[in-house]
Design goal:
Length: 494
Amino acid sequence: MNVSEQLPILQVVLPLASAPLAVLLRDRLGAFVLVLAATWAAFTISVLLWLQVGESGLITYELGSWPPPWGIEYRVDALSSLMLMLVSGVAAVVLPYSRASIEREIRQDKHYLFYALFALCLSGLLGITITGDAFNLFVFLEISSLSSYAMIALGKDRRSLVAAYQYLIMGTIGATFIVIGIGLLYIKTGTLNLADLGVRLQAMTSHRPVLAALAFLTVGISLKLALFPLHQWLPNAYAYAPSVVSAFLAATATKVSVYALLRFYFSVFGETAIFQRLPMEELMLVLALAAMFVASTVAIFQDNLKRLFAYSSVAQIGYIVLGISFDSVTGLTATIVHLVNHAVTKGGLFLLLGAVIGGMGGVTLARVHGIGRVMPLTSFGIVLCGLSLIGVPGTAGFVSKWYLILAALEKGQWWLVFLIVLSSLLAVAYVWRFVEAAYFHAPRADLAGVREAPLALALPAWILVAATLWFGFDTSITVGSASRAAAQLLGIAP
């Protein structure tokens, strides 16, 4: 048996198998080592798959040797290979951070459960990205969602239980809409294979059951990706979850949901059905602009930094959806690039906020007064991530916003360029609130003994901060992969 031929299934199976084994071990160190090994193996596999796709194109894997559409198929193309590498890469960086982080945020007797849930969530996210079967996608979506609810609820802060419950209710509603949409597609076409669905739906896009399926899937996935105004679960979930959970979910969960939306829109229903026969371009444009401006404005008035940057995530999702609304290669390239850039930026940001919680005892603006003097490196890292959220040249955020501007100019929408720049100025306002608290106030008297974050917390965070800066200068991986993926989604490239 050639191991290289089994890489697609190993991508999902390794972290999935590590979850029950971690529970059986019931030892936090043993569970950590096991899940860490599975996570790093998954990241290695994703890099190999990305290289294979770059060399030879589409990779398909038939489960149980059942050919599609009768059996479940795993498919790896330019878009899914990039997403696999993003999700597993973030997990590989975040998990070592968790070893020190959860000591103060999760009860010790629950540590092994955290690692099991982390592995389940990772396998679910990877499964969504790699599967070529609609119902299989739904199953993996629920695996990742259920484990996310549980990870949020593990926090010592009692508010984390309420946040997890809110997320559970909203997530369940979203999942119900998704499964109804998939059911309608199956009734109409008799297949669940995504590629086969795309072929069979070409002649049915105007049929009412298909339009109803599109509506259900759009609403359900929009709930999962926290598109305004369906974002209500996100601020509390990010604010009150353990820091490592906030970082992981902010960097991966909503991004994979966007991937699912792209896959259904362009690979299943088709670009013609979505944007030429329906007013989806106008609808997505309005919702994207609302997210960019409303969420950024709300962020300005937050006192808790985790909630502030949670609302920032809602605004950044607006930029991602804006790219989709352009219905062009440049627009989709901007969307996919921003997926990656925002993931590494926000992942690093929440990891740094976790270090602040460890040092300062909280992340309210009043609590972090003078942090720039007592935790200079951590503060500087937060500022760098903030600059990326604004879109300052030299950061990853600039690259994706630049492509959004190019996409707007291609369509002759000069007014939209103005709005993109104006919304970035709102990001300046909420990032400045941290700068003012960190550098223009004296440290609290009771925090005089606070020191810089320990290496176990600082190193993973700075890896993602470094990636934020690196992708601001070297765009070969992000823009290169994104442009190929965009062309494939629009049917311009094979």
